[in-house]
Each structure stands twice: as C-alpha cells, then as structure tokens.
Amino acid sequence: MSRYNFPITRTAAPKAKPDPDKLEFGTVFTDHMFLMDYDAGRGWHDGRITPYGPISLDPAAAVLHYAQEVFEGLKTYKAKNGRVQLFRPDRNAARINESNDRICIPRIDPELFVEAVKALVRVDVDWLPAKKNTSLYIRPYVFASEPFLGVRSAKQYLFVIILSPVGPYYKEGLAPTKIFVEDRYVRASMGGTGTVKIGGNYAASLKSQEEAHKIGYTQVLWLDGAERKYVEEIGTSNAFFIIGGEVITAPLSGTILPGITRDSVLRLLEDWGLPVREERIAIGDIYRASDEGRLSEVFATGTAAVISPVGELMWKDRKIIVNGGRIGELSQKLYDVISGVQTGEIEDKFGWISEV
Ligand SMILES: *Cc1c(COP(=O)(O)O)cnc(C)c1O
Question: How far is the CA of 26 from the centre of ligand 1 (A)?
Fold first, then answer.
C-alpha cells in the first residue's frame, strides 16, 4: 500500500474519448490532473486530483518572466494481459530532481512523484488506448507560481501532472527521418543547462527547428557549443551512430540530456555483447565514415518515439544517405525489444516495468 492518499475530485462532465486511429502527439488531454503546492516554510503540501482545466495564475507569477520550470515525459502502456505499466518511472523521479536542483526548485520525494503518477493514471485509465503504437503520455512539471518580479528563486511552486493519449510521435512512423545538422545555433554548452529538462532549453531550440522544417527536415542534429564540431543530440532525443560495426554515442560529460531510452539502449547493447563507445565524435568523421561505406546506421532515442531511425543527414550543403534511407537492423531490433518490454510481450529481465 502507498503511503500517499491523494483526495480525488471527479469531473462532472467527462469528455468523449478520441478515435484511437487518429491520435496525434500531445493534442488531447484526459479528464483529470494532479496538483500539489509548495510554500516556503511549509514544503510540498495538498497533493490532489481534480478535474482537468485551466490553472489560474497571477500575472506576476515568476515562471512567466524568468522561466523557472522543469518537466518530465513518460508513458503508460497497456500490456497484452490487460496490465497497465510504466517504464522506469524511478528514473524520471530522479531526473526531475536533478532538473529542480539546477534551477533552484525544491525537490520532490521520488516515491511521492511515482505514486502521484500512478494515482492519476488509475483515475483516467479508461483513456489508455489499447491499439498498437498508442499509449498514454504523462507530463509532470513544476513551475514558479509566486507573484514576484525580482530575480531570485521563488517561494511558491505548483507541481502538475497531465495525461495525453498519443499515437506515434512521427507521422512517418518508424520510417527514417531527414535530419539537418545545425552549425549556427547551439543547444547547450559546458556549465549551462543542457543536462537538465527545463522549459527554457526548448524555447531556445525552436528557431533552429523551424528553419530546418522550412527546408524539409524533420529535426536538427546539434553540434557542441564550443567548436560546433562534435555531434551531441537530435532534437529532443539522444543520438547513436554505427560505424564499422561499433556503436558510438556522445558521453554524459556536461551538455547531454541523460535520456532514459539512451540508458536502456546502452544496457541492452551491453547485454547483447555489442561494443559501445561513449565518446565524442566529430561530424566530419561521420561524413568520412559514410564516404568510406562504414556508416551503417544512425538513430535517435527518446520516450516519445523510442527509436527513430535517420535516413538522411544534411551538413553544410552536403547530403548523405544512411543505409539506403532504410531502417537499420539494430535500430529495428532495439525498437522491437524496448517496445516489447513496455507492452509486456518481452520478458522484463532488467526490472524496468512498474505496474500501476
Ligand atoms: C527528454 C530528452 C531526451 C530523451 O530522454 P528520454 O528519457 O529517453 O525520453 C533527450 N534529449 C533531450 C534534450 C530531451 O529533452
């Protein structure tokens, strides 16, 4: 039994559920949300589940001025046997506190975080679609609600969880994406906030993404902030390259977001006896490997899409096609295994699943 008992106020007007065949990413929200307040001197208090709806904020609320906000993203899956399961929610609980620490937001008890997620999912479990490649996306976030215009950490915060039934993240499904290598804007630099999931990072990335979209690219591949030479991440996912049979990904050395999917991929590859190098690699070396026929796969990892294969890269007006524009063997296998564990079709040998 949980130590937490969050009072529930049920909606008087449940909404119609969306057509599971037409689900997009993050456009429809369920009937309820979780709220919890923080006041300096009192700590976190009054965790509760209420009908989903607008939040009233003072126009001076600090988040609206200085972006003191962190978030997480995870999913609920319906297993074949009807069980409702989460994938490594303890990692999200740990990571939201790393983000909180970095921008001076008070920590949330990790057990409370996971219990709040589960309590809300239980209330809205009918919103969890059963169709393949659909799930219930969970968005926990914390922001500074104190009305105050001085620049300092706030004394009041709100912790919110909302749920959204989702279809596949990319409309193309597992089809390989076209990625623009960004050599003007940067996402993160040493000593900055690239290692944490905070809203401000994403506002700063929109310009680059929009320019890439305009010329037909799905996402951007970020290079390091100092030299714009080493590959870092793809949009809001971690990036992997397979060169000469070796898997390479950027190390967690101060500018990379520590993805939970990234970590799961590393654990699986290790288990399969495949060599992985967590090392910096220059974009020029990736192009050279492609010219020499040694670049076999490129893929991005993240909760939303799990594994997203890359079929094309464009850097300084030079295009390369990866694996003939088709999904690679390892990308497909990783997708099948991780999504198989998430939906209970494959044995959970690492203890990644937490039942709701
Ligand atoms: C969320 C995120 C990821 C992926 O993390 P997961 O835990 O695998 O979903 C990677 N990079 C950035 C910048 C992110 O925000």
Answer: 16
